[in-house]
Amino acid sequence: MRKNLGRNHAERGCIALDExxxxxxxxxxxxxxFCSLAVAAALSGCGGSSSGEHVVNGFDDYRLSITGPETQSxxxxxxxxxxxDEGWYLEGDGFLPPGTTCLRRTCLDSDGFIESAWIGExxxxxxxxxxxxxxxxxxxxxxxxxxxxxCYCDTPPQWSAWVPIVPGLNRIVVxxxxxxLVQQDAVDVTWE
Length: 192
Fold this sequence. Notes:
Elements lengths: L4 H7 L11 H24 L7 E2 L9 E2 L4 E3 L9 E2 L2 E7 L7 E2 L16 E10 L5 E9 L15 E6 L4 E11 L2 E11 L1
Parallel strand pairs: 3-11
Antiparallel strand pairs: 1-6, 2-5, 4-5, 5-9, 7-8, 7-10, 10-11
């Protein structure tokens, strides 16, 4: 399942401020701020206890996907800032791991902050099939993970990663595993 690049970033409230700014920095910062605020609000509202948590069910339609077209290139103006010293920037959606919990059954808490989930046990990895390199995007549970979900906000869990690439064609495969479920998506990235 592919998404329109501009629509996906607009939904996340990210815009490039100038040519040196990159969408990925804004998106990652936005997610971290929301997570931090939601955790602080949740902990202060329940005295640091997780007794009000409930397991989230009924979101089986979320699927692992990489944002953008199946073929991406550093020569494409839409992606020219996605290559850095760290590699190629990827982001996308994941599925909701079993055991994911939320404190409330709403998108926003009583103070208007996004209610973020405690993510269930999972592993989200990447492999550059061209080079054989691999890495972990997200692993574990709760807030140890880099997979982030806003409870009941009608958006799937989000992730992002830097993947080292080499000049030429790079086939990158992202895999999510959780509770016996395995999903994959792939993208061909050309560094020109």
